[in-house]
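Students often ask why we bother encoding 3D structure as a string. The short answer is that it lets us treat folding as translation between two languages. Here is a chain of 276 residues written in the first language.
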Amino acid sequence: MNARDAAIRKVGFIGAGRMGQPMIGHAARKGFDVAVYDVDPGKRAPVEQRGGHWQPSLDALGRDSQAILVCVGYDRELRELFSAQGGLKDVKAGTIVAILSTVHPKTVTELAAIAARRGVHVVDSTVCRGGKAADEGTLLSFVGGDATVVERIRPVLAAYSADIVHTGPVGTAQVAKAANNMIMWSCLIANHEALALAQRHGMDAEKLREALLMSSGDNYVLRNWKQNTMAWAEDDMEIVQQMAAQKGIALPQAGVNREICRMLKPKRFKLDEYGV
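And here it is in the second language, the structure alphabet:
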């Protein structure tokens, strides 16, 4: 067996933000040797507190990592990493690069093809359930890629995931995440409208929320009320609209929800202000 195909012990993380930091901590506690790079040197202290080894450059991180988990924010940042001058240009053949970022599926499939020419395996491994689940290590991971590669990296993903679903070929995890986001933002908007309406009619909103958790109106966002920052709502819905346009499909609710999310973000969970 090639050394690069052995059980993964050395894991690199690119990006140590709100979601990345707890994942780094879970991976370190599970016994993985975790190397971390972030453009913000201020992230070094919290990374090291969680058991990660700070790396001064992407070259240093990529040299020895058997798997690299990428947690950057946007398509352009991913493309820069995979470019001829990017930080992943010298990653060794056999390395698995898992894209955790929420991006357009086409971005992932194109980058996977580029990496494959160098013998590097790319999977997309999007996560759901938000920051609380990241802290608890109970995220849901959708994983798109070759089944053999997915099985190799599964123990790494299991360090911070309670559930792992292989969605199919590379790129399909992005499709699954887009579908998840469409439903999640729809629920968040509907929850605000229902609770605001009930409050205006004199009902205790929290009492109603607890009752709805037993009803057909139950949903994940309602169960985890006041925890969603909406940090990526507009970006998520923009990706959905790009995907829809690419396939010539009309998604009228998704379009309306994007505009509502823009309005809702500064007023989220403030029922007294909703609808004013």
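Translate back mentally: Residues 3-169 form a domain with the Rossmann fold fold (CATH 3.40.50.720). Keep this in mind for the problem set.
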